[in-house]
Amino acid sequence: xxxxxxxxxxxxxxxxxxxxxxxxxxxxxxxxxxxxxxxxxxxxxxxxxxxxxxxxxxxxxxxxxxxxxxxxxxxxxxxxxxxxxxxxxxxxxxxxxxxxxxxxxxxxxxxxxxxxxxxxxxxxxxxxxxxxxxxxxxxxxxxxxxxxxxxxxxxxxxxxxxxxxxxxxxxxxxxxxxxxxxxxxxxxxxxxxxxxxxxxxxxxxxxxxxxxxxxxxxxxxxxxxxxxxxxxxxxxxxxxxxxxxxxxxxxxxxxxxxxxxxxxxxxxxxxxxxxxxxxxxxxxxxxxxxxxxxxxxxxxxxxxxxxxxxxxx
Length: 313
Description:
By secondary structure, the protein is an alpha/beta fold. The chain is built from ten helices and 16 strands. The protein has helices spanning 2-21, 44-53, 68-76, 123-127, 139-153, 182-191, 207-218, 238-242, 278-282, 296-312, and strands spanning 29-30, 33-38, 58-62, 81-84, 94-96, 105-109, 113-117, 132-137, 163-167, 170-177, 196-201, 222-227, 247-250, 261-264, 268-272, 286-292. The strands form two sheets. The chain has a nine-stranded mixed beta sheet, with helices on both faces. Strands 2-8-7-6-3-4-5 form a seven-stranded mixed beta sheet, with helices on both faces. The radius of gyration is 21 Å and the shape is globular. The N and C termini lie far apart (82 Å). The model is unreliable at 1-24 (pLDDT under 50).
C-alpha cells in the first residue's frame, strides 16, 4: 500500500512539475521608444556627441573610428571604448579581435539608451556613405547590449544570448552573432510578409535569406533589394535573385551604400550591424534588431530613406 501511495505522489507531483515547467514564460515588458535617423538628413556624429553631453556614462563598441570630432572626444575619454583591433590606428580604448570582424557599431548611454545601426564613426561613414543610426530607449535592451560589451571585453567567442520583449506597443527581438542563428530570424520575418519587402544590402551572401525572398516573391509579395555595387562577387546573391525574377538594383552612391536594413510590409523593421552574410552569421561579432509594430512615423522615416536611395540608383 505504501508503494502505491508513493507512486501516486510521484505521479501527482510529477504532473504538477510538468505543468509548471511547460507554462509559458511571462513576457518581458517595458515602456520605451525607438527612433531612426538617416545620416543623410542628420549629422550622426553630432547625435553621438549630443547624447554624450547629456549622459554621465557610456560604453561603446565600434568597428572603425576616425571622424575628427569623435577622435578628439575619445582621445580625452576612451576608458569605455572597444575597437576592432585591425582598425585601431590611434591606439584608443581596448582593441578587440576574437574570430572574425568585431563589426559592431553601438553605444549605451546611462544604462538605458542604446545607439546602434550601420554607421561607423568615420569621416566617410558620416559625410560620404549612406548610413543610419537607431536609438532605443529601454533599460532592458541597454542591459543586453552591455552584456555584449562585457562578452567582447572578455573575448568570449559566442554572441550574447538573444532577447525577445515587448517595448510599449512594439515587439523587439535582439540577436548577437556569431553562432546564434540570427539569419534564421531574418528568414522568419520575411516568411511573414504579406505585401512588401524592401531591403538595403551592403554585403549579401546568405542563400537561405535569398531563398526566403524568392519564396515571398512567388507568393505575390513585392520584393525589392538594393545592393552596394562594390560588393558584387561570385558569392553575392545579386545574380541569384535577379535570375529568380526578384527586383534588384545597384546603388549609385560614388562612395558606399553601407546600410543593412529590411522593411517588411508597413509594420516590421530589421536594423543593426548585421549584414545578411555567412561571415556575419558564423564569424563576426554583430547585432541584429527586429522591431515589429513600428509606428507610422518610423515607417515614414525608413521608407523615405529607402526611396531616396532608389531614386538615385
